[in-house]
C-alpha cells in the first residue's frame, strides 16, 4: 500500500456514490426503518494528489443526512440537479430526495416514483442522466424497464420486453442508448428513439449450475464514445468476460478470478472499471477482499487470472468468530487519483486505500 | 410548570469557550469557565454581564463546576473569580485541581511575558482562585447546600475529566463536558448509569465527523518517526507532562521492541518526576491496562526510553526526545528545537493545539523564519508535522451516552444550528425526546414533570387492587382516593379514612324531583301503574315495590302523593343521592313522558 485509511460507519452501507464537489454518499440497508443516507466530505488528504502522512484533517465529515423508511440498496445522484434517487425493497418504487447543503443539513424526501408492483418484484436498479432533462432509468425486471422524468414524474420511455428475467444492472451508454444486464448474464441494448425495437442480446458462456452476473461499464472517460468501451461482466463463480459492444459475437477476453465458491453471497457482487487507469478493473463481493486486475493481460482462454493487488483490510476488522467475517458490500474507484479505491463491508467499515504496483510500473 | 433554564454564555459560535449557565429549581450553577484561544481581546472571556451587570457574582451563583483542565473549559476561571468577583465554591475532580493551576500559570506566562498583555490575571490570582476549589471524587454525592447536590462521572478524554450530574429534589441535569466513548491506551471510556435526568447537555462539536481509525493514525505516526530515525535524523515531540505523552511512549516502546530498533528514546527528567507523581496520585483515573502495569513496575521504567540530559541534544545520530513544554514557547523543548531546527533530516511532531504567539503555533502556520531573543533569526529546515490524538465523542458516541443515561431532553452545545438539524432529528427519532440547540446568549427553557412521591394507605391499596383485573405493569392504573397534604407529607387514603382523620362527618346530598301525572285513580293504583311501567322498561335494574307503597329503582326512591289541590293529578316524588345522579335524571325524564294507557 501507499496509503490506507480505515473508518467505521455507524451502520454498514452497500453503496458508495460520488457526488459533485468530491462528496461521497453512503446509506444504510438494514431491515428496520431509520436507515440513514449520509453525504460525506472526504478528508483533504484524499482530495489532493500527493499523499500526506500526518495531516490534521483526516476524518470524513457528515455534510448532510436523511432518513429513509426502507433499506437503501441503490442510490444515484441526478446530474445537474440537487436531487438524488434511491431504491430498495420491498418493491420497485423509487424515492426522490433533495440535497440543499447550504441551507440545512437534512436531505429531504421530495416524492415517490411509483411503479406498478406486480408479484415477485424486487427492488429496482437505477441509472440517471440529465441530457435532455433529468431522467432516471429504472426497473427490476427486463419487462419493467422504463425511463421517468424525475421532476415531472412523467414516463418518457418504456422498453419493449423480450423476457422477464431479473435485472442486475442498467446504464446509459449515451443519451439515447441503454445497456441492460440480466442476472442470468445476458446483455441487452436498446435505443430509446425506437421504443418498439427488439433489443439485441449477448449471452455468456453457459454454466453447469446457475450463477448470477453483474456488469461494469466505463464512465467518466472524456471524449471517448462510451459504446466503444468494453463492458465487463462478473459471475458469482468468478468468471470474468469483456465484451466490445460493436462486435458482440465473440468475447474480447475471458478470465477466471480466484475466489472462494460463493456461499449465500451473490448479493454484493460488484465490478468496476478504473476511471483513470487504462484497462484496470476491480471486483468484490465474494469475501472480505477486493481484487484489482489488469485486463490487458487477459486473453480468450478463460484461464485463471492473477490479480495485480488484493485488498484484505476488511478481513481484519471482524470481531467475532468465523461466521462473522465481514463481506465487502461495494467498492468504487476515486475519480482522479488513479490507484485509490474506497470499499465498504458488512461490518460497517469503510476503507480508503491506495495500492502500489508491485513490479515498479507506476 | 417547573422548568430548567439553560444559557450558553459568550459571544460567537466558535468552539473554544465553554461556559453554560443552568437554572434549576431556583439554584444557579455555572458549568465550566473557558477561555477562547483564538482571540486576544475581551472576546476570549465569556460574557458574564448576562448574570449581572455590575458587582460580584457570589450572590447570583450557587456553585461553579469545572469538567476538566483544558483551557477552553477553565482558562477564564481566575479572571472570573478574582477580577469579576466570585467567592462561592468551585467544584472539580482531584486531578483537575492538581493540573489546572499549572496550565493556567503556563498560559499566563505566555500571554503576559511573551505577548506583553496587561489586562490579564496574575499568578497570585490563580493561587487565590484555587483556594476556592473543592475537589470531588467519582460517584461521590456532594451536598452543595440543603437542596443542591452534584455527582461526578468518569468521562475519559483526559486525566480527571468528568461529567457532572446536578440534582435539586427530583429534577436533575447532566453536563458532559468533553467526553469519549471509546477507551484508548491510557484512559477508559466515559460511563454513566441510567440516571434519567430531565436534561442532558452534551458537546456536539465532533458529532459530524467519522473518525479515521486510531490504528491508522498511530501507524502513520510510527512511520514518520521511523523514516526520520532511519535516515539519521532526530525527532522532537514537545508534550505536556501528562496525557498523550504516556500513550505515545507506550506506542513507541512497543514499536521499538517489535522492530528491534536501536536509536535511543529520551524523556526529559522534569517530566518523569511530575508524571510519576501525578500517576501515583490518580491511578484510579487511568484505564485497567495502565493500572496493572503500574502495580508491577514504575510507570517510566521502559526498556527503551531513558531519562534525558541536556547534553544529549548535541549527540550525533538519530534519537527521539519527549520534552516540555508542549507549545515550544519556553524551556527545554524550545532549547532542543533551536539546536535541531536547522537540519532538514530532523523532525518535530506537534501533538496538539498551540496557542497563538508560541513558536509551536508559528511553525504550524507555516512560518519558517522565526525571530528569537536578541533579534536572532532562526531558519527552520526541519520537518514540521502535526498530529492530534485527542478523543472526543462522535455521533455514535453521543447516541451511546444518551442510551446509557436515558434523559428526557437533550441539549447540544457548540455547533452551528443549521448544521445540527440532522443530528437533532436523529436523536428525536431514535429516543423520542426533545433536542435543543441554543446559540450563545440564547436561553432555552425545558419544562419538567417532577414526580411527587405519595404514600398510599394499605387499606386503599387493598381495596383498589381487589377491583378489576390485576394491574398491567406497563399501563397506568387509575385509582380513586383522597389526597391528604399535611406538613410535608402527601398521603393517599380512602375517603372514609380521610373523614375519620379529619373528624368530619360525611354529608349526604339528596335530590328530590316532582313529576306531575294525570291520574284520577287512587294513589296506590298510580303507584302500581308506575311500578309495572318501570319494571317493563328497566329490565336490567332492580325495581321493587315496597309494602309501604313506595317504589325503589336501585337506590332511588319513588313515592306518590295526591296533589293538594287537584285530586286528578298525582305527584311523584323521585328522590336520589348525589351518586345516583345519572339514573335519577334518567328516571325523571322517563316519568315526565307520562305513563302508558293501561
TrEMBL record, chain A:
GO terms for cellular component: cytosol; spindle pole. One of its GO terms (biological process) is cytoplasmic microtubule organization. SUPFAM superfamilies: WD40 repeat-like. PANTHER family: WD REPEAT-CONTAINING PROTEIN 73. This is WDR73 protein. It comes from Rhadina sibilatrix. The lineage of its organism: Eukaryota, Metazoa, Chordata, Craniata, Vertebrata.
TrEMBL record, chain B:
Residues 245-363 form the Beta-Casp domain. Pfam families: Beta-Casp, IntS11_C, Lactamase_B_6, RMMBL. Its cofactor is Zn(2+). Keywords: Cytoplasm, Hydrolase, Metal-binding, Nucleus, Zinc. It is found in: Cytoplasm; Nucleus. The keyword Nucleus applies. InterPro entries: Beta_Casp, INTS11-like_MBL-fold, IntS11_C, MBL, Metallo-B-lactamas, RibonucZ/Hydroxyglut_hydro, RMMBL. It comes from Rhadina sibilatrix. GO terms for cellular component: cytoplasm; nucleus. This is Integrator complex subunit 11. GO terms for biological process: snRNA processing. GO terms for molecular function: hydrolase activity; metal ion binding; RNA endonuclease activity. Belongs to the metallo-beta-lactamase superfamily. RNA-metabolizing metallo-beta-lactamase-like family. INTS11 subfamily. It comes from the Eukaryota. Residues 16-233 form the Metallo-beta-lactamase domain. Its main location: cytoplasm.
Amino acid at each position: 500500500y501507499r496509503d490506507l485509511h480505515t473508518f467505521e460507519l455507524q451502520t454498514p452501507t452497500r453503496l458508495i456514490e460520488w457526488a459533485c464537489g468530491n462528496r461521497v454518499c453512503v446509506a444504510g440497508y438494514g431491515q428496520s426503518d431509520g436507515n440513514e443516507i449520509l453525504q460525506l466530505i472526504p478528508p483533504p488528504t484524499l482530495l489532493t494528489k500527493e499523499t500526506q502522512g500526518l495531516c490534521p484533517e483526516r476524518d470524513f465529515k457528515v455534510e448532510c443526512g436523511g432518513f429513509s423508511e426502507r433499506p437503501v440498496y441503490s442510490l444515484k445522484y441526478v446530474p445537474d440537479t440537487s436531487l438524488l434517487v434511491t431504491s430498495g425493497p420491498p418493491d420497485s418504487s423509487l424515492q426522490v430526495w433533495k440535497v440543499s447543503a447550504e441551507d440545512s443539513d437534512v436531505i429531504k424526501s421530495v416524492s415517490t416514483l411509483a411503479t406498478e408492483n406486480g408479484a415477485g418484484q424486487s427492488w429496482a436498479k437505477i441509472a440517471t442522466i440529465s441530457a435532455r432533462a433529468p431522467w432516471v432509468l429504472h426497473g427490476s425486471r427486463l419487462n419493467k424497464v422504463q425511463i421517468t422524468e424525475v421532476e415531472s414524474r412523467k414516463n418518457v420511455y418504456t422498453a419493449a420486453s423480450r423476457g422477464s428475467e431479473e435485472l442486475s444492472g442498467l446504464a446509459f451508454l449515451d443519451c439515447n442508448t441503454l445497456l441492460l444486464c440480466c442476472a442470468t448474464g445476458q446483455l441487452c441494448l436498446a435505443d430509446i428513439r425506437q421504443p418498439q425495437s427488439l433489443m439485441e442480446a449477448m449471452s455468456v458462456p453457459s454454466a453447469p449450475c446457475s450463477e448470477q452476473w453483474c456488469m461494469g461499464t466505463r464512465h467518466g472517460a472524456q471524449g471517448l464514445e462510451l459504446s466503444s468501451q468494453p463492458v465487463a461482466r462478473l459471475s458469482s463463480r468468478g468468471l470474468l468476460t469483456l465484451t466490445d459492444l460493436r462486435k458482440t459475437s465473440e468475447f474480447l477476453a475471458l478470465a477466471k478470478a480466484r475466489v472462494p465458491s460463493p456461499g449465500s453471497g451473490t448479493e454484493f457482487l460488484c465490478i468496476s472499471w478504473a476511471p483513470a487507469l487504462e484497462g484496470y478493473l476491480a471486483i468484490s463481493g465474494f469475501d472480505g477482499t477486493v481484487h484489482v486486475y489488469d485486463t490487458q493481460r487477459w486473453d480468450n482462454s478463460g484461464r485463471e487470472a492473477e490479480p495485480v493487488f488484493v485488498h484484505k483490510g476488511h478481513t481484519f476488522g471482524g470481531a467475532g468468530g468465523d461466521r462473522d467475517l465481514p463481506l465487502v458490500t461495494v467498492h468504487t474507484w476515486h475519480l482522479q487519483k488513479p490507484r485509490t479505491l474506497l470499499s465498504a463491508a458488512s461490518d460497517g467499515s469503510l476503507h480508503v486505500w491506495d495500492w502500489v504496483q508491485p513490479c515498479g510500473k507506476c | 410548570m417547573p422548568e430548567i433554564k439553560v444559557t450558553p454564555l459568550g459571544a460567537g459560535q466558535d468552539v473554544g469557550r465553554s461556559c453554560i449557565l443552568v437554572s434549576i429549581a431556583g439554584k444557579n450553577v455555572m458549568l465550566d469557565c473557558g477561555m477562547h484561544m483564538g482571540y486576544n481581546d475581551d472576546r476570549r472571556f465569556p460574557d458574564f454581564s448576562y448574570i449581572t451587570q455590575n458587582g460580584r457574582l457570589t450572590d447570583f451563583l450557587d456553585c461553579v463546576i469545572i469538567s476538566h483542565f483544558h483551557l477552553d473549559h477553565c482558562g477564564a476561571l481566575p479572571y472570573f473569580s478574582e477580577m469579576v468577583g466570585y467567592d462561592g465554591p468551585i467544584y472539580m475532580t482531584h486531578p483537575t485541581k492538581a493540573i489546572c493551576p499549572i496550565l493556567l500559570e503556563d498560559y499566563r506566562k505566555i500571554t503576559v511575558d511573551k505577548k506583553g498583555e496587561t489586562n490579564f490575571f496574575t499568578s497570585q490570582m490563580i493561587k487565590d482562585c484555587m483556594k476556592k476549589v473543592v475537589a470531588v471524587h467519582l460517584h461521590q454525592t456532594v451536598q452543595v447546600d440543603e437542596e443542591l447536590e452534584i455527582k461526578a462521572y468518569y468521562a475519559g478524554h483526559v486525566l480527571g475529566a468528568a461529567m457532572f450530574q446536578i440534582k435539586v429534589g427530583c429534577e436533575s441535569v447532566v453536563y458532559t463536558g468533553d467526553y469519549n466513548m471509546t477507551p484508548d491506551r491510557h484512559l477508559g471510556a466515559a460511563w454513566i448509569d441510567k440516571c434519567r435526568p430531565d436534561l442532558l447537555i452534551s458537546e456536539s462539536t465532533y458529532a459530524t465527523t467519522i473518525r479515521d481509525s486510531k490504528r491508522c493514525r498511530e501507524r502513520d505516526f510510527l512511520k514518520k518517526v521511523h523514516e526520520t530515525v532511519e535516515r539519521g535524523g532526530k525527532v522532537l515531540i514537545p508534550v505536556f507532562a501528562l496525557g498523550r505523552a504516556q500513550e505515545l511512549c507506550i506506542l513507541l516502546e512497543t514499536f521499538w521492541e517489535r522492530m528491534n530498533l536501536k536509536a535511543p528514546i529520551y524523556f526529559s527528567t522534569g517530566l518523569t518526576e511530575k508524571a510519576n507523581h501525578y500517576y501515583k496520585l490518580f491511578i484510579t483515573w487511568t484505564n485497567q491496562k495502565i493500572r496493572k502495569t503500574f502495580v508491577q513496575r514504575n510507570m517510566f521504567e521502559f526498556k527503551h526510553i531513558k531519562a534525558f540530559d541536556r547534553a544529549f541534544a548535541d549527540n550525533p545520530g538519530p534519537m527521539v526526545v519527549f520534552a516540555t513544554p508542549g507549545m515550544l514557547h519556553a524551556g527545554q523543548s524550545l532549547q532542543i528545537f533551536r539546536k535541531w531546527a536547522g537540519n532538514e533530516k530532523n523532525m518535530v511532531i506537534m501533538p496538539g493545539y498551540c496557542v497563538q504567539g508560541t513558536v509551536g503555533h508559528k511553525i504550524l502556520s507555516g512560518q519558517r523564519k522565526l525571530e528569537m531573543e536578541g533579534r536572532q533569526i532562526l531558519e527552520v529546515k526541519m520537518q514540521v508535522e502535526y498530529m492530534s490524538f485527542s478523543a472526543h465523542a462522535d455521533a455514535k458516541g453521543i447516541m451511546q451516552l444518551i442510551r446509557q443515561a436515558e434523559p428526557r431532553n437533550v441539549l447540544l452545545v457548540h455547533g452551528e444550528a443549521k448544521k445540527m438539524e440532522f443530528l437533532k432529528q436523529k436523536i428525536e427519532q431514535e429516543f423520542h425526546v426533545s433536542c435543543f440547540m441554543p446559540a450563545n446568549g440564547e436561553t432555552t427553557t425545558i419544562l419538567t414533570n417532577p414526580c411527587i412521591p405519595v404514600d398510599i394507605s394499605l387499606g386503599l391499596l387493598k381495596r383498589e387492587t381487589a377491583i378489576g383485573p390485576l394491574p398491567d405493569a406497563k399501563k397506568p392504573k387509575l385509582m380513586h382516593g383522597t389526597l391528604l397534604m399535611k406538613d410535608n407529607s402527601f398521603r393517599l387514603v380512602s375517603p372514609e379514612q380521610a373523614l375519620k382523620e379529619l373528624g368530619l362527618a360525611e354529608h349526604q346530598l339528596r335530590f328530590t324531583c316532582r313529576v306531575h301525572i294525570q291520574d284520577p285513580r287512587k294513589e296506590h293504583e298510580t303507584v302500581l301503574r308506575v311500578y309495572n311501567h318501570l319494571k317493563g322498561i328497566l329490565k336490567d335494574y332492580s325495581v321493587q315495590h315496597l309494602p309501604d307503597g313506595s317504589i325503589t329503582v336501585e337506590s332511588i326512591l319513588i313515592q306518590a302523593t295526591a296533589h293538594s289541590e287537584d285530586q286528578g293529578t298525582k305527584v311523584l316524588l323521585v328522590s336520589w343521592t348525589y351518586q345516583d345522579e345519572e339514573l335519577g335524571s334518567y328516571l325523571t325524564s322517563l316519568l315526565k313522558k307520562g305513563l302508558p294507557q293501561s
